[in-house]
Amino acid sequence: ERIYHCECCGLEIDRDYNASINILRKGLEILKEEKVS
């Protein structure tokens, strides 16, 4: 199935779009850690 359904909050989102958001968040987290060090 191409749509992700969150059982906690009921969010429905395209899996590829959701994956892109997760990749962006992880990348920003890594960049933030590099600036702090």
Offer a concise description of the structure:
The protein is of the alpha+beta class and about 35 residues long. It contains one helix and two strands; from the N terminus they run E-E-H.
The helix tally amounts to 1
Residues in helices, as a percent range:
55-70%
In the residues, how many domains can be counted?
1
Number of strands: 2
What value does the Rg take, in angstroms?
13 Å
In this structure, how is the largest beta sheet organized?
2 strands, antiparallel
Mean pLDDT: 93
Distance between the termini: 41 Å
Structural class computed from helices and strand pairing: alpha+beta
Q: Based on Cα principal axes, name the global outline.
A: elongated
Please list the strands of the largest sheet in the order they lie side by side. Answer: 1-2
Instruction: Give helix and strand order, one letter per element, not per position.
Output: EEH
**Low-pLDDT residue intervals, each spanning 5 or more residues:** none
What percentage of amino acids are in beta strands?
15-25%
